Amino acid sequence: MKTVIYACLLLGITLAACTKETVNSDGKGPYGDPVLPAINFAEEQAISPARGKVGDEVVLKGKGFLAVKDNLKVLFNGTAAPIVKVTDTTITVTVPELGSSGSVSAQIGQEFYFGPYFPIFGPFQMDTIFPGVRGGNAGIYNVIPVPNNKYMITGEFNEYDNSAIAGGVNRLARINADGTLDRTFAYGTNTGPSGTLNPIVYLSEELQYLVGGYFSGYDQVSHVYSIAKVNANGGVSQRSVIRPSGAVTPASELEGGFRGTLNGLHVQRDKKILAIGNYRYYVKPNYNLTTVELGLDSLHLDSTMVQNIARLHADGTLDSSYHYDLVNHQGKVTVNGGITSSYLLADDKLLIAGNFTTYAGQSVGRIARLNTDGTLDASFNAGAGPDQAINDFLVQPDGKILCAGNFKKFNGVTTGGIVRLNADGSLDPTFNAGDGADGYVNRLGLIPGGNIIVSGSFRKFAGITRSNFVVLTPTGAVHKTYNTNGGITFSGNAGLGQVMKVLPMTGQNALLMVGTFSQFDYRQANRIVRVVYQ
From its phi and psi, is residue 348 left (phi > 0), alpha (psi between -120 and 50) or beta? Predict the structure, then answer.
């Protein structure tokens, strides 16, 4: 028997239309019985134990498992687990090798059923005692060790460790080994640069810090352009300038800087400074200028065109012996694109990489080595190089060079965004990361002993589920025991979570990692985390 039901729908105010729908007398609708899920996970205590390590047996609870057991797969964050036993209400599985913290799900054919969250612990784990939850309120871009077992961090943050210091912790901070803020350093109102900081070098003889970034003033000193020296306990290192009127003006100890952003600073053995970045001009404030229009004590910026790479004397004046045109009084042509990473070798030669294809008009494959006078070192040859940008590289203790980026091929060889070069620039065939990242690699880190940290924006690496973070062996394989963590994310947008620097902690099986992330292994870690490993 069928029943006819009429329904009237009011449209606007005056228009009405009536429709009729035929349904079964049992009320199940014209398209047959509703489709119920093949299985269900229990709403409470769906997995026991609630956490574990690789190789542990765990039991999933629910219903409907036995009927689908021949087509059933259980996945730990995307990695299939060996099934030990199935009943209608339980599935016993072994936590799989290369499984990681995340959702446990069941797959039946093309259907997925998402179950409980399951943390997996292993020999590479977040130190939950370290107060990363109170870290920075914005990106931390760099970290270096300094004397007395302390560390300097730079970035765009203006708060750290929930300090509540009036005026903030402005883009430069010294922290203790336990991650807390070292309050003997200068913070607060009218401290720090006017913009972001990134590269930092500790000057051991001067007991100062050399910092770079993008700023035009530091503390209350104006005309400090993207590079400065900072005293041991904070505060820009300054000098006093006597103006034509006799007035005394505070000025940066360094006599010049750059109109643009610095992402690399390197101090040579002779104390000269290599400054790398995205800029077109070296600028030097002229405090001795008097003009009719502006009057006494006018200030003028003397500008010299130099692009991307320049060398300064220790006092901050431009070194015209480094890749400089003495006839036209400007820097010679350097790269035709951006430089993302640089490294000063022991012989004071400079490695650079990025998204450029020429240096001084000569073809280079997005990575080049420069002689000590800034000319291209022809003995380093990476051939055509990668088909897209190199985002980062690092030099291993043996002199080999790991490169990572957006590329899928290097010298025509298919890669997964990461390769290793020999010291002369040729590909090292002993390194193979397989398919690599399904997105891009942004940063690299080296663990003492040779294991490699890879970070970027990806969901899988070599076909294995990894959230923006993976540890590789020295030959490029996914490490079988160091990848149980759930990776790194930024709350609300996983793609924004990036590692910017990995620093091994001397004398410890531990690493400090800083960046733009807010979670590590699905636990709160605001732009800084300490990781311990066995």
Answer: left
Q: Which two tokens stand for residue 336?
A: 């035709």
**Beta strand pairing status for 469-472 and 452-457?**
antiparallel
Check if the beta carbon of residue 493 is closer than 8 Å to that of residue 487. Answer: no
- What the chain holds in terms of domains, given with CATH numbers, is 40-124 (2.60.40.10), 214-332 (no CATH)
For residue 295, list its beta bridge partners. Answer: 291
Q: Are 325 and 307 in contact (CB under 8 A)?
A: no
Separation of alpha carbons 375 and 519, rounded Å: 43
What distance in Å separates the CA atoms of residue 247 and residue 249, rounded to the nearest whole number? Answer: 7
106-117: per-residue pLDDT in tens? 999 999 999 999
DSSP tag of 397: T
Nearest Cα residue to 146 out of 199, 207, 206: 207
Contacts of 105 (CB under 8 A, 6+ apart): 74, 75, 112, 113, 114, 115
3-class DSSP assignment, residue 494: helix
pLDDT (tens digit, 9 = 90+) per residue, 275-310?
Answer: 999 999 999 999 887 664 556 666 788 999 999 999
- Token pair in block for residue 58: 């765990």
